[in-house]
Amino acid sequence: MKAVRKTKAAPGAEIVDIPIPSPGPQGLIVKVKASAISKSDVDVFEWTPLVQSSNYALPFTMGHEFAGEVVAIGEQVSGFAIGDRVAGETHIPCGKCRECRTGNAHICTNNMKIIGRTWDGCFAEYIRLPHVSAIRLPDGLDFISGCVCEPMGVAIHALQKAEVSGKNVAILGPGAIGLMACEAAKALGAAAVIAVGSNPSRLAYSLKIGADTAINRNEMDFAAQIRTLYSHLDVVIDCTGSNAMIDKAIDALSNAGTLVIIGTIESELTIPRYMYRVVYRELKITGLWGRHMYTTWDIMENLITTGRIKLEHYIGKQFPLSDYTCGFECFNNIIGRVVLLPEE
Length: 344
Prior knowledge:
It is a single chain. With 344 residues, this protein is of the alpha/beta class. The chain folds into two domains: 2-147 and 310-341, Quinone Oxidoreductase, Chain A, domain 1 (Alpha-Beta Complex), CATH 3.90.180.10; 152-287, 3-Layer(aba) Sandwich (Rossmann fold). Helices cover 28% and strands 25% of the residues. Strands 3, 5, 6, 9, 10, 17 and 18 form a seven-stranded mixed β-sheet that branches. A six-stranded parallel β-sheet has the order 13-12-11-14-15-16, sandwiched between helices. Helix 5 (149-162) crosses helix 6, helix 5 (149-162) crosses helix 11 (295-305) and helix 8 (222-229) runs parallel beside helix 9. The radius of gyration is 20 Å and the shape is globular.
């Protein structure tokens, strides 16, 4: 089968022929019908310093956002059938450690595998998927929309952590996940949603899918503007990973507010006057990695099936798998995800 593989500790990737995997006793073989390129995939492709520091074993097949059809099942797997339509949970937990046994399998500490990093990923014709990481697609959801369930789950998990119902919420960075957070925040009952970014097209799009206000951070002090427009700000969801944006967000938050950081922070995070700006104001700052297994997926299915979120909003350009380089090249210039499709 064809697969996009990271073969060298350098920028780029290769499309190569490798054997179709077997499911193993506890796995599924999924024929990939659509996969999406994420920012972390771009980082792997470009071989950024943060990726280099992870010391991933090479080679591996890239990609972790996908949807497909089950074509083979391991002998110890129950609850799945040939022909089932599934998406993949990126995290493959051990199921035995303290985190797994206390409802936090998504942050398993016992050598958890990550699809597209330490487990061969979905930029291929087929993927071997452990049954614990297989999630059935909602009825009526097509494969192309289904391949962006995984990033929508990140947005929903962040909003879950902040308990956004009835609150004023600012979303920093209207990339794909930031835009998803705008729509999902409204679906989950946020009182007001404020999108903050620098890309005029993405800011305009945020207003179409859920944001009440869009602020261009290059044109004004966004913290001051939020204070002018709203009596208080309860929640900030950061999708930028920018130290400057996070620092400014702290000034925008009201006392006892919550900051959830999704964005990848490439270097050290510095918060000046931390005691006065964070501790004495009782701000809550939390990180996030992936989705809560499986609560986030359950909430997302409810929002999809009731029409409160529409994943087709986040499909940007589509390319055949063999044109993966075009997908990486245009990643930063589109609204939504670049989707790679099999060549049948």
